[in-house]
Amino acid sequence: MTGIQRQSAAPLLSVRDLRVKTRQGRILLNGTSFDLRAGEVLGIVGESGSGKTMTARALARALADGVSAEGEVVFDGTSLLDVSERELRPLRGSRIAMVLQDPFTALNPLQTVREHLRESLGPAVRRNKAEARSEVERRLAEVGLAAEVADRYPFQLSGGMRQRVAIATALAQDPTFLIADEPTTALDATTQAQVLELLRKLQRDRGMALILITHDLRVAFSVCDRIMVMYAGTVLEHAPTEQLARRPRHPYSLGLMLAEPPVNRYQERLVSVPGNVPPAHSVTQTCAFADRCQWRRDACISGPPPLAEVSPPGAVVEHHSACVRAADLSDEMDAAIRSRSTTADEPPVRGLGAPLLQVRALSKTFRTASLTGRRKENVALADVTFEIAEGESLGLLGETGSGKTTTARCVLGLSTPTSGAIELDGFDISDYRRLSREQRARVRRLVQVVFQDPYASLNPSMTIETALGEAITAGGAGVHGAPGTVAELLDLVGLPQIHARRHPSALSGGERQRVAIARALAVRPKLLICDEPVAALDVSVQAQILELLRDIRTRYGTSMLFITHDLSVVRQMTDRTLVLKDGTIVEAGDTAQLLDAPQHPYTRSLVASVPGPRAATADTTSKDVSREPSRKA
Amino acid sequence: MVAAFVLRRLGAGILLLLTLSFLVFCLLALSPGTPLQALLGTRPASPELVDSLNARYHLNDPFLVQYGRWLAGVCALDFGQSISVQSDAPVGQILSERMALTLQLGGYALVLILLVGIPLGMLAGIRRGRRTDRAISAGATVAISAPAFVLAIVLLYVFGVALKWFPVYGTGTGFAERVSHLTLPAVALATVLSGILVRQTRAAMLTAMSQDYITFARLRGLSPGRVLVRYALRNAALPVVTSLGLILVAALTSTLFIEQVFSLPGIGTLLLAAVTNNDVPVVQGAVLVLGASVILTNLAVDLLGLALDPRTRFAVKDGA
């Protein structure tokens, strides 16, 4: 299974049996082997806990304290795991480079872009002042940034611009090998597409070898030559991109692909992989995926399955799968993939009731002042008008800073609008402060919220039972039709009763989000605001949560305001959609129509930036990257 | 822009001092004993003497008039005359003499705090979890736990009385002698505070060292020296400067004890004597000087922060 390419030239990077362990001997990464040739792009795809970032960090020798790597990593004749940091430094930047996930923390906040670039250049260029100056400008132009960006500080730049700067500094000495660890995950959709495009271009122009770590199969499909699918510290499948996309040979890869909610059509039943990702050390002696696999046999758990070749006859590049039943299941898996692309369900037609929420000419301005007295007004929302009928689900689509969360906060009474009116079920809630105590209590029972991050939205010191019990009491006992007990609530969101006595820390992300939903439902709200409820969750769990929310809507007729940046979530979860940009609604309409035939250029660019096989109507005019808005203060 | 900021802060500072002086004036008026008793001393309180003293020091004027008279004087830079501590000497002159010594003591201690606290804190932060770190952290805990006045007495006994390395009493003349006289008090003052600074610096260093930008800088092959100085130190400097402001203010209060123990004629002993003797003008003057130094220290810390961190120059507040 070593040489993936049959006519193997000497690989640039050769990894054999790479393992990562904690100091206490707990296994985090479970024997990974692969080769990478010069100019090749390898994608490593996996959910949280899969070991993909561990692999990247082990290769770059950037593991955290208390975690160590063993095995063999040979880069161009140097055994990377055996040399000292001092011996490794000449390779860093000039031969091997790495880009980190979060562009907001990767740059020194006290240094200008110019200083970042200059210090990253080779010593010969760095010492000549004039040459360094022109080189900095050239490097900025290469990543699509204007020369004047050089004198800005990182905090004055948008996320996309920061990631461009980070890429420019990482490539300042023209390395032959780049590791990019989720380089676009923290970015907005349109920015994400541009940064991926940039990475691909830079890689091709330089013939640079690239390892792209991502949790998003669509991203990997759009960029990589080969893809390695990892799960719980183990490689489950390793295949050429085309092959993986059309003929996956591992149930987990298949599950991941099916769990991806489609963006171009409504799917009546969202498929998810049941259960949660196990920790790597617990599955070293079995197929890591066995517990969640519908095709499990005894052979799967009798020992760790080898990564065996499953290539079709005559294939140039080998295809490996760690499923012992890959051969028997191939027809079933092929059928599943085919059926996915043919089924197109009609979204259900629901009878809508009277308007529940009416938002009229909502505006919100934040006044900001710096320590030294510069004042600025920041318009977060300008003249936003919309309605949600009883039983309706409305999508609020937009990127960072578009005002979607501000809208939610105004409806929830967490922010007071600068002007405009909000009416909820007959109550004027434009200003919560003007409501009487009794009115406020009633409004709070009408509208509830599920936040993005289930790790931060539950009190870590309260058991689930206490948290839910508190919500039930706060709602006032005996609210009509509300689930009266903790047990009923857990049942409602599909959690076993045993969770009641646990603390949030003992739960997985998906389970926590279920608890958060249960807590919101305790008062049986008429309107549920979902603020990116699946953005922080793994793909295989996302679908579970989306299905749960659909189920709640069907069962109780709850209206929903669905805030998201994700077009496929909007497609699956909403009847109508508003597109917000810079605090104004640029387009509104029936979700299916809006996504199939976007009218506004901005909506079109959003649709176009979905990675992978482009949506049919996508307008692919490439945007001028230097016009991306910056955050100059 | 920065000038406007400084002016605004100074304006706020003056308001604060005004309030402070008024509150202290009230407290003195409410406290038992009157300046009259101090003025009379052991003399018999004959009506003529009382009348003349009252007239001279305006002791019979209504409360607000007394405060107003004092305030008018201050505006003309006249802090009045001392009543009892150094009878009839101008308060301004007493304050400047006493403050000079206190500032020397404080400056000496500050140098010690910085020289000990910052390097040790950095070292502990860089060598996190190793023996060096554990030794330094343990030392810092001991230093923090030692009350300054107890430590002062121990130091005085060991190095002054038993070993006779340093003088026990007096302030000395000339630079060398002054330094030798101020060494024990400065050490006593600096110990607790440098313990605090060690901890603050260590924490700031740990935070900075664990940031992504440090990892990213290493991955780009920047020299370890550059990563340490331009990345770790500069970023750690911000929280350290902020805590330094608090430490300096704490030092000011500690001088009260230290000057008392070492019988140094600084502003602390002056304040104590003035309060005991109901010497209103001196108390008011000393409070004003101490208050002004706290305000100026904080202003200096903020300006230093502005100079160090470009973000604070554009910092954004949510004025919802």
TrEMBL record, chain B:
It comes from the Bacteria. The keyword RNA-binding does not apply. It is found in: Cell membrane. The chain crosses the membrane at residues 105-126, 138-159, 179-198, 236-262, 282-308. Belongs to the binding-protein-dependent transport system permease family. GO terms for biological process: transmembrane transport. PANTHER family: DIPEPTIDE TRANSPORT SYSTEM PERMEASE PROTEIN DPPB-RELATED (PTHR43163). Its main location: membrane. The lineage of its organism: Bacteria, Bacillati, Actinomycetota, Actinomycetes, Kitasatosporales. The keyword Endoplasmic reticulum does not apply. It is a multi-pass membrane protein. It comes from Streptomyces spongiae. CDD domains: TM_PBP2 (cd06261). This is ABC transporter permease. One of its GO terms (cellular component) is plasma membrane. Keywords: Cell membrane, Membrane, Transmembrane, Transmembrane helix, Transport. Residues 99-305 form the ABC transmembrane type-1 domain.
